[in-house]
Amino acid sequence: MRCEADQILITTGAQHAQDIIARVLLSPGDPVWVEDPGYPATLRILETVGARLVPVPVDEEGLNVAEGVRMASDARAAFVTPSHQYPLGMALSMDRRLELLAWAREAGAWVVEDDYASEFRYAGPPLTALQGLDGGQRVIYVGTLNKALFPGLRLGYLVAPRALVGPLSQARRMMDRQAPTLTQAIVLDFMAEGEFAAHIRRRRVAYGAQRDALARALEARLGHVLEIASPDQGLHLIAYLKGGRCDLEAEARADAHHVTAQAISRLYRGREPRSGLLLGFSGYPVRAMAPGVARLARALA
Ligand SMILES: Cc1ncc(COP(=O)(O)O)c(C=O)c1O
Q1: What is the pTM of this model?
Q2: What structural domains does the chain harbor?
Q3: Using CA atoms, how far apart are residues 24 and 21, in angstroms rounded to an integer?
Q4: How confident is the model at residue 271 (pLDDT cuts 50, 70, 90)?
Q5: Closest residue (by CA) to atom 4 of ligand 1?
């Protein structure tokens, strides 16, 4: 990251930050790149301000920038999840990062970097944020503590290029006057005492083990029906359904067995969806994985 304190705006989370950004930067009819498949709440925010969504396909390197340029080179903004593509889980490659920033500079477009789960990377070197690569010119960085700490905390932030600090702060003030200070003071103490960094280190180890336990149990019990894509980062994995099985039906069956497994096909907009289940691993200890997968196996039998 490259920023100074006065470029940081406190929000209630990533969603609030994206809402402020969309209201300030977009007018009805503006073309906006979104990832396909993508995060539904981001799409709803963009639809609410009347943006014209341009669903840009995602491949193993993340957002396909060349395809985005082909579809709408004049887009006003791109909303992306570079450190852990939602929902598929890959990181945006360095080539694609540079390509995206080059396009944004040339087109005068904004890149909104939703870095919602960047703390949880299990392998490889830390990823360079688009915001840092770009030097804070075209990128608005969105961060959240609701994942690293707990969802009900409702504490997040955005980091704005200098030219946008005034308009974004004004919009935030119109919505909600100011950010609550009590939780910020508590989190500040937690950070200053070194507890936050220790918490992240402990959770990273725990979540890595939970991810591995879930992937192992899925391979062992359901390897014949599921293809597991275990990501190097984030809080969930994707289990693709083999043999043309419908993920919506699998989701309903899992639900009837009290397993939360979200069908990914409904997160696609512009192209043939893949059939798969999004399975979270951060909320359950290692010992819960095998019994949970056994229930999923009964549901899918
Ligand atoms: C991709 C993505 N962006 C943003 C958010 C929202 O984060 P917050 O709870 O900070 O609003 C989530 C939450 O699940 C998410 O998955």
Answers
A1: 0.97
A2: 5-178 (3.40.640.10), 199-300 (3.90.1150.10)
A3: 5
A4: confident
A5: 14
